[in-house]
Amino acid sequence: METVEKIRARTEALHALGLDQNASSDDIRSAWRDIAFHGHPDQAKGDSSGFTRAKDAYDFLRKEGLAGKGVGSGKPRRPKLRRRILTLETADINACRALLNNALPDRSDEVETPDSELMCKSDHVPDAVGFFGRHLTFFVSTPVYEGANRVALPTSVLASSRQTETEVLNFQSNDSGGGEVVVPEAITARTFPGAKSVRIRFDADQQMRDEFSFAH
Q1: SS3 153
Q2: Which of 45, 82, 180, 185 is the most exposed place for a label (fewest CB within 10 A)?
């Protein structure tokens, strides 16, 4: 059963017992005992529809581990977060490149690229983004260079709108090569709507992506 379906099934099961999503394990057991007594066919003049529905709901919640003793609050457990990596669309990458090209058009170290863009070796654009809940990890195939670096990121990857919004981040590196940059919380909150954290991994290859995907 998919995650969304599980959440819906748990909500419906709790509703069948007359409970909301904040119900504890004690609440679930108490509600079932009350329905089992008052809704039993012997007590309900032979009408077993409510009793059967409640029993199915309680059995489901018990199998989900939400109705046992010692479960703590007994609130429905959050589904385990899954890691996934999304290859950025060409439109997102082009928007990032365009922002870098327009940000400092008079740079003296510009070099031509095959598509006549003006990015230099210390400019970076990601080609993929990893999701772990609302934690984002951007994967950049180019290495950082000692000194000043710029990276353009699509900031709307968690937004429902498909209109790409981008932002250039500047940072200093003490050496060259691979590495990870953690975007400060203040910038994350202001620039990446809905994100809890943002990391950028440079000189990222397929192995690095695989390690992200299968990390526990």
Answers
A1: strand
A2: 45
Tell me how far apart the alpha carbons of residues 55 and 47 are, in angstroms, rounded to a whole number: 14
> Binning pLDDT at 50, 70 and 90, where does residue 93 land?
very high
> Token pair for residue 172?
């200093």
Longest Cα separation, the chain? 89
Distance in angstroms (rounded) separating the CA atoms of residues 96 and 125 = 6
Cβ contact 74:37 at 8 Å: no
Give the C-alpha separation, 169 to 207, whole Å. 25
Cα distance between residue 109 and residue 145, in whole Å: 13
pTM assigned to the model: 0.59
Per-residue confidence at 123, pLDDT binned at 50, 70, 90? very high
Report the chain's terminal Cα–Cα distance, integer Å: 21
* Residue 66 dihedral angles phi and psi, to the nearest 5°: -105, -5
Average pLDDT along the chain: 81
- Give yes or no for a contact between 158 and 84, defined as CB atoms under 8 angstroms apart: no
8 Å CB contact between 131 and 166: no
